[in-house]
Amino acid sequence: MASWAPLLHELVATELPERDHAEKTQQLAGQLRQAGTPILRLVEALGPFLTTDDDPQRARATSVLAEVVAAVPAAAAGEGDVVHLSQFFTSRLTDWPAVRGALKGCLALLSRRGSAAPARPALAEVEEAAAVEMMRACVSHVFIRALAQQDRTVALRLVTAAMRGYGAALLDAGLDLFEYLVSSVDGEKDPRCLLLCFEAVRCLLALYHRQPDTSLCHERLEEGAEELFEVLACYFPVTFTPPPNDPNRISREDLAAGLEAALVAEPLFAPYLVPLACEKLSSTLRQAKLDSLSLLGACAEGYGPAPLAGHVSTLWSALRPELLAPAGEGLLPADVPAAAELAAAAATCLARCVAAFQSGGGGGGGRGGEEEVPAGARLADAVLQDSSLQDMMACIQSPGSDAAVHRRSVLRAQAGARVAEALCRAGGATAAQALGQLLPPLLALAAARPAEGSSGGWQAQCLAWCAVLGMLAAAAEAPPSAPPAGVDGELARQVVAAAASALEAAAAALAPAVGAEGEEAEEAAPGPSAQRQPQAASWPLLPGDCTQQRAATLQLAALAALFGDPRQAAALPGQDVEAAVASVLHLLSAPCASASTSAQQAAAVAPLAALARSAHAAALSDAALPRLVAAAGRPQTAAAALAALQALAAASSGLQLDIVVALDQALQQQLPAAAGDPAGSAAQLMQQLLRAAAGIASAPPAHGGAAEPAAAACFLQLGQHLLDAAQLLPAQAAAAVGAEVQAACGELAYHAMRGAAAEQQQPLAAAAAAAVMQRGHAHLAAPGGLQATVCCALLVPLRQEAVRGLAGQQPAAPLVQRLVQLAQAQPDGSPAGHWAALAAAALLNKWDPADSDSAAACSSAVLQRQLYPACGLSAGGGSDAGGAACLPAPAPSSWRYLAAVGRGLAMRGSREADAAVGRAIAALDAAAQRWQAVQAEGGGPLEAAGSEAAAALQQLAAGAQAAAHFLEAALDGGAAGAGLSKQSHAVCKPLWQQRLYTAAAARLLPLLEGSLRGASAARQAAAAGGEGAAPLLASPVLLLALACLLCTAPSGVLQQEQRRMLPWMLQCLAALQRGPLADGELLLSLLLLVSDALMSSAGKQQAEAELLPRLVPALLELTAYRPVPAVRETALQCLLVLVDLPYTCLHPYRRAVAASLAAAVDDNRRGVRLQAARCRQAWTAS
Amino acid sequence: MAELINPSPVVHERKATRRRRTPSHPDNAEEREPIDSLEVFEHIRDITDPEHPYTLEQLNVVTEEQVEVDDAAGTVKVQFTPTVEHCSMATLIGLCIRVKLLRALPPRFKADILLSPGSHASEAAVNKQLSDKERVAAALENPNLTQARLPAACCCTGAHAAACLSAGMEDWAASLQH
């Protein structure tokens, strides 16, 4: 007896729940597949059940057989098997109780054709005659609408599979599948079945369309199209709200897309569909309108021009009101955006229709496109002759000076422009026709200059340019498949010429304005690229918005749209482009005098960037670059010119090299002047130049390929020149350079060096190292030395091979020591110190791994002799805790340098990093003990301490804070911007942060536990002495260190450590609220960690089980934390999260929470109040 | 189920609101941002209508313009407009607003919840009921009102209303039926 026999018996003999049945069937199939059992054996085993008179048993047996045939096709691979099975299942289709199994079996057999995977080519298929018999039985005996949902699904799949695999044979045999499907689809309500119905209809229509013209199928289609349409149309527009937690995940959009595809599949639906869609379009429901517009666009694309030729006027008269709705009378301002959205959908629909009609094709192999029916031309003509376009011209010509009249005119002009844009977006001949008809009059209107001195005369210009810009941008968006007509060359020339002359005038008008307005908006530097274009494209709704500047901005955007379209840009003659560029440059080189000018100059960058990407890039490098570079050298025009240069460098790799060379020269010229005048405009200009150059150098190479090495070499040269220029400066001048310029120089040097290859980096690195070691020790070490900044910054992003090469020329250990010495000689916060420490860390990090002994010796020497003493850590080791020598020194910059070096070592996996962390924690422990001693001497808590003790505590707090932030800085994984990271080729061992965190936590936690034990003992003593019990807290110094560590720990570790660390986080929250160690930012970071933890289910469980007695009071205290409002808000968010806990465990805190929330709803900050109200609502409602 | 009082109300879009005044300087953490009409409106705009699955804002029952606040004096006045003037849900809506404001505003505030003048057939009676302290106290006991959402059963008047407004609300339910 086969091993699967008991399972089979269980499946057939008993009625199992659906899920069990599916599982057991799968098991059975698995066993059969594994044993390679032929289907015959299964049929034999099922024998009596397949023919029994017991209906449920027979049904189950048939079903099991069908499921096995579907799941294990190889079991019935032979032709004989298939013939027998198909005969069996066909006969069972007439057996009503067993019809489900029969349908499944038929489906499994029929779907073998067409869907056979290449992996199982040996499967026999059902022969056509047998398939015809099967479907004949199905059509005559299986009435789909009478079946249950599950069976309907199978039956619909069967019909679809039969049509796909055996369609022609079924039609030849005279089966009326059309009628069968219509009767099956009619009245279907289940969304799953509906999706299958739509697919079946599409499949049926495709099958009928494939038949030769002489067959009767086409007549049948013509005869039944209306009936089928009626059956489908009742679902339009689809209204369906999926039930919550729907396992089928069918959305309204799925159903709507399925219906649309089915309706679009048959051109004979056109006479019924267009009126239906137009009727639904007149509905007030937004979704119905959107669906109708989508359907109309899709049916134009699907049917082609011929079937819709008679409906062109209906179509346009339905679309027109939607397009013009935003300009309608009596529309409230609040409703304008909704109307505009619908109008945009209508415009898309119009563009789709026109594009589909003019391409002449259509779905279904161009069935409709054979006749030469110029439906597209007629629709386009109807639109172009429409009064809305004339209305647009009239409104643009005389918009009216009154604000209300102007607004109305603008809305009407905008509606007309939307129609014109739709035509342009269709592309091809229609776009050319529309542009040819509308652009000349618009340009004529735009060319009309207002009378001298009149303030309100720019309305017509602005509106005309808005319309021109919209049309040009729409033409550029035309699908690439459309015939490339677009703007013809002459029109494009006219546009460019008009824009150029208008811009000339605008630039000329700027000159007197400068004197009048003075320098007020120097800092409003224009941003790069064309981000402002959408703003420029918006129509000016107020008459006051229509100024010459606005017009100029629009002209610039129009030029950008024209240049941005490669087809149109290529058609433009060179001299026109040069003239346009000249006028744009004129505008850019005008002094930036006001915010409007700077906005205009930002817009001027867009056409240049567009041109840089087009075929006319050469015109830019010849004419524009020298002028822009010259403008960048003048303080009044530098901001705009540099933004333009940055945009051009980003747009074209060819221009990038020229720009970098030009900037290089400008920098060398400016440096002496900037050094001579550290607070003046020359220094500011230098700073702008440096930032722009660093911006270009730090941008990722967008073009890749061959341009990259050339760019890297070019940047490297820039770095070399910067180094030379810095070294040529006299010592006094170099020392006088401002900190901002120094920082910018350092950043530029870093970015210039970063991209180069190792062999390219090496000579420059050697020069920098030599400068650090040998030349002019005196002025390198001088406070704020520019040379030191540049030299050190050049050493940071070296590749490892370059560091190895450098070590061959220059002994590395003295260099590292010298760098640390240099850093320590700089004043607090100076860029030179920062870069020197980073350079030392980088060299230690990238030290040749083959030479690890010398690396360890060097790092040990640097730490022991230079960095530890500066931080107040005794050189002999950290074991003498409690000694005064071991207290952390309040020198934040020394700790920062130690953190930089420690981080470099930790990234490399060096043990010295762990030792440094250990030292710091030992120092913190000493500080904690001292803290306690001072408190005891001062006579109790901080508030009561005497002034001497308070001063001592302040001193101690400064040291402890510096040491605690060392942990933060050493572990910080972000390292955004210029620093030691993978971008600067640092050695970065996987999980180095986790390792460092574990080492620090392993040292810190025992200390904290000891401190807590001490506090507990002290409290017991105080309680015995009759004093009030103070809250049980570990030492605040250690808690500060832990907080710093937790706030920078990697998120994965935190998640893992959550259970252990949550109680400590609460301690930190309580300890860091007041006293000299209070830190609002740190509290906020901790609160965010706590809130993340509380949102997890493990965190909630932990809070419920053990944390609530400490958590709720700590949070309530923080809701009144004055210094930082964000802390209060986040504490309230945490309280809100707690509401999910069971009522019983929250109940004891309700009164205290209510009292705190009553105060919080009257907080001074609005955000806190809203959060408190939400929290109060939740706590009272729960 | 009984007929709805207003079977097809006009539904409006949720408005995007923006403060006209720029926020104060972040450095000055303790400068007071006064409670204004928009803030109060934020509290009540999302209360669900008793009859339809829309918010009071979507039905234009409350608008920002109908909220008047004086932060210093601690007064707030909210006027609301039922969708039909014979609306028997007006008191219920008013109580929902009052309960929500009681929870959301500081205790020093005195809230006046009133019908917009001329918006209801029995305006004076409803306004009187809304100021009735006992009625408000009873409403505060009703979990449906405290959550400012009403179950579907409350969509009906008559017997259903009486059944669902338990916990000290019987007298009021009776007044609804008249």
From TrEMBL, chain A:
Ranges of residues in domain MMS19 N-terminal: 43-324
Span of domain MMS19 C-terminal: 738-1138
Subcellular location per the Swiss-Prot or TrEMBL entry: Nucleus
GO terms classed as biological process: DNA repair; iron-sulfur cluster assembly; protein maturation
This protein's UniProt keywords: DNA damage, DNA repair, Nucleus, Repeat
One term under GO cellular component: nucleus
SUPFAM superfamilies per UniProt: ARM repeat
Region annotation (Disordered) ranges: 517-542
Domain of life: Eukaryota
Main location class: nucleus
Signal peptide: none
Function statement: Key component of the cytosolic iron-sulfur protein assembly (CIA) complex, a multiprotein complex that mediates the incorporation of iron-sulfur cluster into apoproteins specifically involved in DNA metabolism and genomic integrity. In the CIA complex, MMS19 acts as an adapter between early-acting CIA components and a subset of cellular target iron-sulfur proteins.
Similarity annotation: Belongs to the MET18/MMS19 family.
Protein name per Swiss-Prot or TrEMBL: MMS19 nucleotide excision repair protein
Lineage: Eukaryota, Viridiplantae, Chlorophyta, core chlorophytes, Trebouxiophyceae
Automatic annotation (TrEMBL), chain B:
Cross-referenced SUPFAM superfamilies: Fe-S cluster assembly (FSCA) domain-like (SSF117916)
Pfam families: FeS_assembly_P (PF01883)
All copies of domain MIP18 family-like, residue ranges: 39-111
InterPro entries: FSCA_dom_sf, MIP18, MIP18-like
Chain intervals for the UniProt region annotation (Disordered): 1-34
Single biological process term from Gene Ontology: chromosome segregation
Keywords for the protein's UniProt record, in alphabetical order: Chromosome partition
Family membership: Belongs to the MIP18 family.
Stated name of the protein: MIP18 family-like domain-containing protein
Source organism: Chlorella variabilis (Green alga)
